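Kindly inspect this one:
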Amino acid sequence: MTLGDTTTKSDVIRSFHSHPMAKQALPEGLEDEFFLSALAEYELDVKEIGYDDSTYEFQNVLDRAVIYTLGLMMYSEYLTRELSRLEKLQGFYGKDIHLTGNDASKNVTYKDLVLEQERVQMLLHKQKNHSYN
């Protein structure tokens, strides 16, 4: 992570890339959308963390737990997209090619998605300020 006085968007992106993904590159701009979605969800659920769109930096150094949570939230967005892609592969039959939507791939991706969403919810819950503390 950064050693300076701020945390950058790149720090969160590195956390996102630490999770297992398909080998094909994401379409341009999609990673940014995953980041912005994760940031919005975090700020709605926990607290404002001061991200500046013009400098791609946060106002302060974020805790490792926050960076990890944002990366995991981005990964959940990725898995949601991957599951949607797999569900659309119902079967394609051409003269030279034969593709089918593999139910095993869908089930594994769905289970991964549910697991990661549960982990995100647990992490968000731990970072909230509860009134009974």
User: Anything to note?
Assistant: Residues 72 and 127 are 14 Å apart (CA to CA). The longest strand covers residues 51-52.
